[in-house]
Design goal:
Layout (H helix, E strand, L loop, with lengths): L1 E6 L3 H14 L3 E6 L2 E2 L5 E2 L5 H4 L3 E5 L10 H11 L4 E6 L9 H4 L5 E6 L3 H15 L8 H8 L8 H12 L15 H6 L8 H8 L6 E5 L3 E6 L4 E4 L3 H8 L8 E5 L5 H9 L7 E3 H13 L10 E5 L13 H12 L2 E2 H7 L4 H13 L3 E5 L3 H4 L18 H10 L1
Parallel strand pairs: 1-2, 1-5, 5-6, 6-7
Antiparallel strand pairs: 3-4, 8-9, 8-11, 9-10, 10-12, 13-14, 13-15
Helix pairs in contact: 1-17, 7-17, 9-12, 10-12, 12-15, 13-17
Length: 408
């Protein structure tokens, strides 16, 4: 796997760039170096570990490296940092002298300057050149994506949502089937005690009572076959109907549950749903996320116990019906490094309800590991996401719109 080093970008910008690169080139993955302050409390070049030095391409924000203004010394420090690697260099305004430097005037494709704010076409073109200069691809590899991005973007769906749909079309399977943790909703209740008495969550609890396969019957018609070990459930009911079902006041107390031996799961599935039962299968984590989202949608989550928190598996973002831009951003950040709820709220102080909602849904869906906030992971250092500067939204385009959504 070839790696791209992201350096000097604000945490939110790096998350968006990571998404763009991952969606466009499957053979590229990103390593991020957080912004670093010098002893004089100004932005400075971050130290590179072995993984960072091994990256074949760099995407750097000149301002984020403390190199906003050009000088011979700034150029020397930048070249030393890049170590002859192809780079996409992000600048602001008129470039503060960088566009008049030998790096910009050179006919070599080693250094590509891109103005901020930028469009997806500019970023992809610059990365295409960097890939070619690094010898890890040619321009034709991503030509189809540039062609699509160049079309007039007069569509009704927001670009960040089209990004998820675009990514899902490139996945080999329609959705992941992820086994849920055996603890069910208990991590949710321990973190958010106020949710323990919520009636709407009792139906979800029925789905997670056992790690063994089971058949749930609601009334005489509705059947739900659960296989938590393989991370799926099968039902003829749509997600919309399941959401309505959980809101019924007597459903949680009227569910009949029957264990199903593992060697009989397929025969029971065929009996309930016919030989084409796989088409009635849904990822269990996706169903739980959607049902829990419905259950907490009208609640104002305020009480919580601070915990250490890290995603072990990304949510099914391309398939969640009401995914929000901040869900994408938090997914990327929480998958990278351990966090605490307090550190996330501190970084996203204007979005506290969204942060708490994301944590609650991730725990319900079994997608995260937790530990006491003062535990060993906290002692090892929990990275606190840093809020990026506000961006103007006067530029349009696929990536610009995605980035605007992530930042606002």
């Amino acid at each position: 796997m070839n790696r791209v080093l992201l350096a000097g970008l604000a945490t939110r910008d790096a998350a968006a760039m990571d998404i763009l690169i991952g969606m466009t080139w499957r053979n590229l993955e990103c390593i991020t170096l957080e912004r670093q302050l010098s002893s004089s409390m100004t932005l400075d070049l971050p130290a590179q570990d072995a993984a960072a030095r091994a990256c074949r391409i760099c995407v750097v924000d000149l301002a984020g490296l403390g190199l906003r203004n050009y000088s011979a010394r700034a150029e020397s420090r930048l070249l030393e940092f890049l170590a002859e690697r192809p780079a996409v260099l992000l600048f602001r305004g008129d470039g503060n002298g960088w566009l008049d430097s030998t790096l910009a005037r050179s006919s070599s494709a080693l250094h590509e300057f891109v103005s901020v704010p930028y469009k997806t076409s500019a970023i992809r073109k610059a990365l295409d050149s960097a890939r070619a200069a690094a010898g890890i691809g040619n321009r034709s590899d991503s030509q189809q994506y540039r062609t699509k991005a160049a079309r007039p973007e007069t569509v009704s769906a927001p670009a960040w949502k089209r990004a998820l749909a675009f990514k899902s079309t490139r996945d080999k399977s329609d959705a992941r089937l992820t086994p849920l943790d055996k603890s069910g909703l208990e991590p949710v209740f321990q973190t958010f005690p106020e949710l323990r008495d919520q009636r709407q969550l009792r139906f979800i609890s029925q789905l997670l009572l056992s790690s063994d396969a089971q058949l749930l019957k609601v009334g005489k018609v509705i059947k739900i076959l659960l296989h938590p070990a393989e991370g799926w459930l099968a039902t003829t009911q749509s997600l919309a109907k399941l959401r309505r079902l959980q809101n019924h006041p007597v459903v949680a107390t009227s569910v009949e549950t029957s264990p199903v031996p593992n060697d009989q799961v397929e025969s029971v599935a065929r009996e309930c749903f016919g030989k084409d039962y796989p088409r009635f299968q849904l990822p269990l984590d996706l169903v739980v996320w959607e049902l829990a989202s419905e259950a907490v949608s009208e609640l104002n989550l305020t009480r919580y116990n601070n915990i250490g928190f890290q995603l072990t598996c990304l949510p099914n973002l391309a398939h969640i019906e009401q995914v929000r831009p901040i869900d994408i951003q938090l997914s990327v950040i929480c998958a990278r490094v351990p966090q605490t709820i307090d550190s996330l709220i501190s970084a996203f102080d204007r979005n506290k309800p969204d942060v708490l909602r994301f944590v609650a849904l991730s725990l319900a869906a079994g997608l995260a590991r937790t530990w006491p906030a003062g535990g060993q992971e906290a002692l090892n250092g929990v990275a606190t996401p840093k809020a990026g500067p506000a961006k103007s939204s006067d530029q349009h385009g696929f990536f610009r719109s995605l980035l605007d959504k992530l930042l606002n």
